[in-house]
Structures are given as structure tokens and as C-alpha cells.
């Protein structure tokens, strides 16, 4: 019986608390907060008499002055450092040059292609492409890899073999992050499937000092270059690329980087302009990543299989190059003029 | 302005009005000392919302003391509210591991007043515990008991209103239902509260 009274009392008290809280909320809603804030700011009580503040000011003003000047120096110092860092950053940015070449800048006095049997080359001869680079076949049925920066914003992309055959290419996939682009040549009926590619693709990371070579089109003619792997990371520690001591020029971009056994270990992507012989190549590993992220629709349902076994391994370098060069193409890109 | 036409009440009148449940008195009281607590909390790493919560809790302590007729003031009302608010805020700061505060007002300092403050705050904490438990028990009670008890004891609806709202055939039926609910709440509540 007693507990029954208790619980009722407790409930009544609880109700009273809740209702009072509601009234308080209403009061809070009805008061003029700005006036309250003003009153609070003006609030002066004996506990914080102004005399005390003045005394504190007198005692600590030298300390304050020192602290303030230190703060000013630090502030401007940091701003200065930050700005100079930014500028340095910009300079470094300029040091990296993408190796696609602006063909218009190159003299057109270069030897025209003579073996232009089917007349396809003539179009290119009359109307030189605006950007050119290199690229090579991934599979013998016409999948092709090059750099994204070459084909970026392209209106049309053509590839031209060392023998002067020209094919139109379709962009299957562009991986901007790793500067890779997958093209397909077999859209063009003129393209005939080649014998299987002789080189293989090796996703294992290669060791420093590995002798490497590349083939590419810095000119209208295929050019061979050789060097060695000088660092496991690329431009400014970019872990997706290698640094290679190899002499490359605009137009080499997109070319294959091969080791002695004929494994493709990377794709040439750029070089540092401030020092000679410092070039960069995207690791083959990221080529696989890019291939895996191609939507199946773009491949028309047929998976892309790369050659894993090099048939070049036991051949001397000269023979390797001879077998290779049919698979390395020049990429020509047309863009609409601004 | 509505407020300016009302006579300015003294502290004693405010307390009487508060005990009677007058909205005018509560409004005047609310506006009179809020700036003080606002200034105190905001100059001790709190924001306006903290200040509002602290002030409202201090007013709850005062209100419940006044309503139960057990308020003994050994200092000015202003000092009382300041000291209560100060203690409550100190407790919150301690939870945030800050122990130093800057006073904007002199807190109650003589022994009687401090004893009284301690007692009031202990009472308040005890009631807080009880009310949290009550809210919890009500929550676990389930429907329709929760709403029925809420309507009767908290919203103060009449038995007649409740009969209609819940669709009972007559008020007696509703009363029986309410009694059953109360008994269930009693079991739930005391099962925890006794411990």
C-alpha cells in the first residue's frame, strides 16, 4: 500500500519536472537572445574588477610584447616558407615533360613515307598529326597500349607501323591515374592479325641495374635506346613508375620498356627535363590493373590475354629488336584546333 | 512591450510566484539572471547551449525546492543561482578533465550557505537518478500503459478524456486499467530503485 503511494508520488514529481522543463524551454524560446548576449558582455562584477586587469597588464606587458613579436615572425616566416615551397613545387612540375611530341613543331622536311601502297598514308602526309607518340601491341589481334597523355582530347587516333601501314584506332579505355590508354586496331578492317607477340608481360618488380631497352618513334623512323633501371620509384617518389637511365625524346612516350629476356617491364611515360637520362616508365603491374578495370562491354565479351612467355629470351639483342619492331607503332593523334 | 508594463518583482516575490506556478514570475526570473550564467559559462569554455542547459538545471533545483517548501536561502537568490550553476558546470568541466574556472561572480562562501548548497545538490542528484529510472521504467512498460500513465500523471488529462481517447466503455474501466498499469510500473521501478 505504501509503495503504491510512493510510485504515485514519484510519478507526480516526475510529471512536474517534465512540465517545468517544458515551461523553461518556452521561456528560452521567448527571450531575446541578443539582449541577453549584450547583458552578458556588459556583465561586470566585483570578481573581475578592471583594476586587477590593469595590474596584470602592467606586470606582463613586456612578456606580451615578446610573445606578440615571436608570433608575428613565426606567422610571416611560415607564409614565406610556404610560398617558396609552392614556387619550388611549380618548378619541379615543369621539370617533368611528357614525351608526346608536337609534330607541327617538327620540321616537315622529314622523309615522307614512300611505301604508301594503299594510299592510306597520304592523308597523314598532307595533314600532319598534331601529337605523336609510340605504342605497342598487347595482343596479336589488335589490342594496343600507349600513354593516356598522347591520346587525351583526341578527335581521332591513328597508328602507323614501321612499314608505313596506317590503321585507325578506337580508344577502349583510358586510365588517367597511371597515364595508360588501351586502343584497339581491329576495328579497322585493314588490320590483319599478326603472329603472336614475341615479348611477354612481367608484373614482377624488376631489380635496380637491370639492363633495359626501348623502341619508339621520336622521329618518323623507329629508334632503339638502351639503359638501365636506376630507381624503383618514379618522378618524386611515384611508386607506380620506374626511373630509368635511358635517353628518350618526345615521341618515345608509350613505347615498351623491355628487359634482357624480352619481358615488358614498363611503358615509357616521361622524363625529367632538368637532368639528362632521367626517364620514367609506368610499371607493367599497373598495366595489368588498368586492363582488369576495363568494363567487359568495351572488350566485347572477350577477355584480354597477355603473353606470359617471352620467345625472345634466348635471342641476341639484334634479333630481339628485329622481331619486336613489327609490334611497335607510331601513334598519331588529331585534335580540333582551338 | 509586454514585459515593461509588469511591475518589477523582488526576489521574494519571484520565489512566491515560482511556487504558485506563475509564468510572469518565471519569465522575469529567467531573464534576470540568465546573462550572469551565460557570461560565466561562455567565459569558461562553454557555449550558449551549455549555458542554457546549466541555467535551466539550476532553475529546476530552485523550482523543486520551492515547490516542496523546503527552500532555505542563506544568501541572495542571485548568489544561490550562481553557486548552483557554478557547481553544475564544474562537474561537467571535470568530466572534460578541466578543473580551473574563472569566476565572474563571488560564489556563496559562508558555511551555512555551502552546507545548504551541498544538500540541495545531493537532493537534486537523487531526484535526477529517480527520474531517469522513471523514464526508463515507463519506456519498458509498453503501450498502452505508457501513454495512459503519461496522459494522466504528466499531461494531467482527466479520467473522462482518457476514457474517450482509449475507447474504454466507462471511466471505471479506465481507472481499473490505470491501476493495473501503475502496479506494473511499480514493480519495474522498485526492482531497480531498491538496489
Structure description:
Chain B: Pfam families: Sigma70_r2. The complex is a heterodimer of chains A (about 350) and B (about 200). Chain A is α+β, with helices and mostly antiparallel strands and about 350 residues long. Chain A has a domain at about 200-295 and about 305-320: Thrombin, subunit H (Beta Barrel), CATH 2.40.10.10. Chain A has helices at about 1-30, 35-40, 50-95, 120-125, 150, 285-290, 315-325, and strands at about 95-100, 100, 130-135, 145, 155-160, 165-175, 180-185, 200, 210-215, 225-230, 240-245, 255-260, 265-270, 280-285, 330-335. In chain A, strands 9-10-11-14-13-12 form a six-stranded antiparallel β-barrel. Chain A has a six-stranded antiparallel barrel with strand order 3-4-7-6-5-15. The radius of gyration of chain A is 35 Å and the shape is elongated. Mean pLDDT of chain A is about 80; it is low at about 105-125. Helix content of chain B is about 75%, strand content about 0%. Chain B is built from nine helices and no strands. Chain B has helices at about 1-5, 10-20, 25-40, 50-65, 75-95, 110-140, 145-155, 160-165, 170-195. Chain B is elongated, with a radius of gyration of 21 Å. The interface of A and B includes residues 21 and 23 of A.
Question: Layout of SSEs?
Answer:
The complex is a heterodimer of chains A (338) and B (195).
Chain A: H1 2-30, H2 33-42, H3 50-95, E1 96-98, E2 101-102, H4 120-126, E3 131-137, E4 143-146, H5 148-151, E5 156-160, E6 166-175, E7 180-184, E8 200-201, E9 211-216, E10 223-231, E11 241-245, E12 256-259, E13 263-272, E14 279-283, H6 284-292, H7 317-324, E15 328-334
Parallel strand pairs in A: 8-13
Antiparallel strand pairs in A: 1-13, 2-3, 3-4, 3-15, 4-7, 5-6, 5-15, 6-7, 9-10, 9-12, 10-11, 11-14, 12-13, 13-14
Chain B: H1 2-5, H2 11-20, H3 23-42, H4 48-67, H5 77-95, H6 111-141, H7 145-154, H8 159-166, H9 171-193
Helix pairs in contact in B: 2-3, 3-4, 3-5, 4-5, 6-7, 6-9, 7-9, 8-9
Amino acid at each position: 500500500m505504501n509503495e503504491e503511494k510512493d510510485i504515485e508520488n514519484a510519478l507526480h514529481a516526475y510529471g512536474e519536472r517534465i512540465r517545468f522543463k517544458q515551461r523553461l524551454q518556452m521561456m528560452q524560446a521567448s527571450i531575446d537572445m541578443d539582449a541577453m548576449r549584450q547583458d552578458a558582455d556588459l556583465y561586470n562584477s566585483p570578481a573581475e574588477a578592471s583594476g586587477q586587469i590593469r595590474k596584470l597588464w602592467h606586470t606582463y606587458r613586456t612578456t606580451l610584447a615578446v610573445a606578440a613579436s615571436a608570433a608575428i615572425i613565426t606567422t610571416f616566416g611560415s607564409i614565406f616558407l610556404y610560398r617558396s615551397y609552392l614556387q619550388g613545387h611549380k618548378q619541379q612540375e615543369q621539370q617533368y615533360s611528357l614525351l608526346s611530341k608536337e609534330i607541327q613543331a617538327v620540321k616537315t622536311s622529314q622523309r615522307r613515307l614512300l611505301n604508301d601502297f594503299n594510299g592510306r598514308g597520304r592523308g597523314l602526309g598532307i595533314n600532319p598529326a598534331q601529337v605523336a607518340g609510340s605504342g605497342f601491341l598487347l595482343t596479336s589481334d589488335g589490342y594496343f597500349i600507349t600513354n593516356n597523355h598522347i591520346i587525351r582530347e583526341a578527335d581521332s587516333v591513328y597508328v602507323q607501323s614501321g612499314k608505313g601501314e596506317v590503321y585507325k584506332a578506337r580508344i577502349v579505355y583510358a586510365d588517367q591515374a597511371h597515364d595508360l590508354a588501351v586502343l584497339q586496331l581491329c576495328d579497322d578492317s585493314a588490320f590483319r592479325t599478326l603472329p603472336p607477340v614475341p615479348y611477354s608481360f612481367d608484373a614482377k618488380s624488376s631489380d635496380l641495374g637491370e639492363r633495359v631497352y626501348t623502341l619508339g618513334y621520336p622521329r618518323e623512323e623507329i629508334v632503339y635506346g638502351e639503359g638501365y633501371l636506376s630507381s624503383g620509384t618514379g618522378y618524386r617518389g611515384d611508386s607506380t613508375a620506374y626511373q630509368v637511365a635511358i635517353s628518350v625524346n618526345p615521341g618515345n612516350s608509350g613505347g615498351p620498356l623491355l628487359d634482357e629476356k624480352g619481358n615488358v617491364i614498363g611503358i615509357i611515360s616521361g622524363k625529367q627535363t632538368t637532368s639528362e637520362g632521367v626517364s620514367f616508365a609506368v610499371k607493367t603491374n599497373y598495366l595489368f590493373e588498368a586492363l582488369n578495370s576495363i568494363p567487359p562491354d568495351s572488350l566485347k565479351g572477350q577477355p584480354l590475354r597477355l603473353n606470359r612467355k617471352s620467345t625472345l629470351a634466348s635471342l641476341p639483342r639484334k634479333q630481339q629488336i628485329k622481331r619486336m619492331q613489327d609490334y611497335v607503332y607510331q601513334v598519331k593523334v588529331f585534335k580540333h584546333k582551338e | 512591450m509586454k514585459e515593461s508594463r509588469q511591475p518589477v518583482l523582488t526576489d521574494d516575490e519571484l520565489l512566491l510566484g515560482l511556487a504558485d506556478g506563475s509564468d510572469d514570475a518565471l519569465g522575469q526570473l529567467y531573464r534576470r539572471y540568465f546573462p550572469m550564467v551565460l557570461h560565466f559559462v561562455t567565459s569558461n569554455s562553454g557555449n550558449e547551449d551549455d549555458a542554457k542547459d546549466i541555467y535551466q538545471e539550476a532553475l529546476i533545483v530552485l523550482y523543486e525546492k520551492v515547490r516542496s517548501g523546503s527552500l532555505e536561502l542563506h544568501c541572495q537568490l542571485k548568489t544561490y543561482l550562481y553557486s548552483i550553476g557554478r557547481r553544475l558546470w564544474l562537474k561537467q568541466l571535470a568530466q572534460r578533465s578541466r578543473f580551473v574556472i574563472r569566476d565572474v561572480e563571488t560564489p556563496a562562501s559562508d558555511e551555512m550557505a555551502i552546507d545548504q548548497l551541498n544538500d540541495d545538490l545531493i537532493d537534486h542528484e537523487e531526484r535526477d537518478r529517480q527520474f531517469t529510472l522513471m523514464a526508463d521504467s515507463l519506456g519498458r512498460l509498453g503501450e498502452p500503459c505508457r501513454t495512459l500513465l503519461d496522459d494522466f500523471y504528466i499531461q494531467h488529462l482527466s479520467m473522462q478524456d482518457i476514457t474517450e481517447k482509449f475507447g474504454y466503455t466507462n471511466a471505471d474501466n479506465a481507472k481499473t486499467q490505470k491501476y493495473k498499469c501503475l502496479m506494473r510500473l511499480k514493480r519495474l521501478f522498485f526492482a531497480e530503485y531498491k538496489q
